[in-house]
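User: I've been trying to design a sequence by hand for this structure and keep getting stuck. Would you show me what you'd pick, starting by listing the structure so we're on the same page?

Assistant: Good idea, let's start from the same input. This is the structure you sent:
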């Protein structure tokens, strides 16, 4: 890809949203803040622009993208919203819950967005800037996290620039994201709800609304080819459930385990989620061989945190090993 000039505009600056919409209409890529992580957006109805997302991120073509909508009505143009899905949308949208639903027969979103699957992932973000951009464009935006594929997700405009400067034309800077980890993803088929990716909206939150249990996804079948094991990889190796720090390690603490830096001194899981990716980035800057991470309780939001940590610690494909 040719090097392009990357402009950064603060979200609150007048005209910021108009600029983002102009870029999207012109088929360019724009990084926008959402409440979870920054997204790398393209007009979902423009296949060439969507193709550029895959190129800029180095993302395999078989890993489908989430379509971000500004309302339930907009989602209904493209996917079949079942009764149970609509109930959950009313409860949790706008917010960090993504639904994988069957595409409408008339769905105008090009195949490339959903990697040829018969389903499409839809989410209505809580972040006002993101929603206003979608509203003005009046098309959904396809947006994966705005990081190089396999690397840590971005929670600030600077994180986006660190990975994608020169590859995208515009970053809308909305400050630090408030949730910090990606949305919960559920698949709904018949009346079954299947958890595809844990997030801050937990299975208990979902069950409370639907009155039925959320099923775990069968780990033997890869529902989305992109849900690969190794992901969110810092440069250093990652060691989990660490009580103490070994030689050439930095320790990330939680609660009683203070560490060199901490996810949450008071053991608050929402705070730990918000700080997870930025803390891993900071830890990486120490340049140690390994990042040790204190145990995080596997309950509530802790399930999503442990999911991301397990991927950060998973064996990496050859050629992307820890740098020391
Ligand atoms: O919070 C979020 O969800 C962020 C922000 C930007 O909205 N987005 C995000 O996108 O995390 P991405 O592309 O990094 O992760 C989307 C995940 C991938 O694992 C992909 O495989 C899965 O969603 N996915 C997308 N479409 C799917 C489908 N039709 N069936 C199953 N999984 C799907
Ligand atoms: Mg991602």
């Amino acid at each position: 890809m040719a090097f392009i000039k990357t402009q950064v505009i603060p979200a609150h600056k007048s005209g910021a949203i108009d600029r983002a919409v102009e870029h999207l209409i012109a088929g360019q890529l724009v990084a926008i803040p959402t409440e979870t992580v920054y997204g790398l957006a393209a007009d979902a109805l423009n296949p060439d622009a969507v193709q550029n997302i895959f190129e800029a991120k180095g993302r395999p073509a078989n890993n489908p993208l989430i379509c971000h909508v500004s309302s339930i009505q907009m989602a209904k143009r493209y996917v079949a919203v079942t009764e149970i899905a609509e109930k959950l949308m009313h409860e949790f949208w706008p917010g960090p819950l993504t639904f994988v639903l069957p595409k409408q027969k008339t769905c105008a979103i090009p195949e490339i967005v959903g990697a040829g699957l018969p389903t499409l992932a839809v989410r209505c973000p809580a972040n006002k800037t993101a929603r206003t951009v979608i509203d003005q464009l009046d098309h959904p935006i396809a947006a994966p996290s705005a990081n190089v594929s396999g690397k840590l997700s971005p929670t600030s405009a600077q994180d986006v620039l660190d990975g994608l400067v020169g590859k995208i034309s515009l970053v809308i800077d909305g400050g630090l994201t408030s949730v910090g980890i990606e949305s919960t993803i559920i698949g709904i088929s018949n009346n079954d709800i299947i958890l595809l990716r844990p997030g801050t909206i937990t299975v208990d939150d979902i069950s409370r609304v639907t009155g039925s249990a959320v099923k775990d996804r069968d780990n033997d079948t890869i529902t989305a080819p992109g849900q690969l094991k190794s992901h969110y990889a810092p440069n250093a190796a990652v060691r989990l459930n660490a009580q103490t720090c070994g030689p050439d390690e930095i320790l990330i603490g939680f609660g009683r385990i203070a560490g060199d830096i901490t996810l949450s001194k008071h053991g608050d899981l929402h705070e730990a989620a918000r700080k997870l990716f930025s803390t891993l980035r900071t830890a990486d800057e120490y340049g140690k061989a390994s990042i040790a991470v204190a145990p995080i309780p596997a309950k509530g939001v802790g399930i999503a945190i442990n999911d991301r940590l397990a991927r950060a610690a998973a064996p990496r494909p050859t050629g992307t090993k820890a740098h020391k």
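That's my pick for every position. To get oriented when you compare it with your attempt: The radius of gyration is 19 Å. Residues 144-145, 153 surround magnesium ion (ligand 2) (CB under 6 Å).
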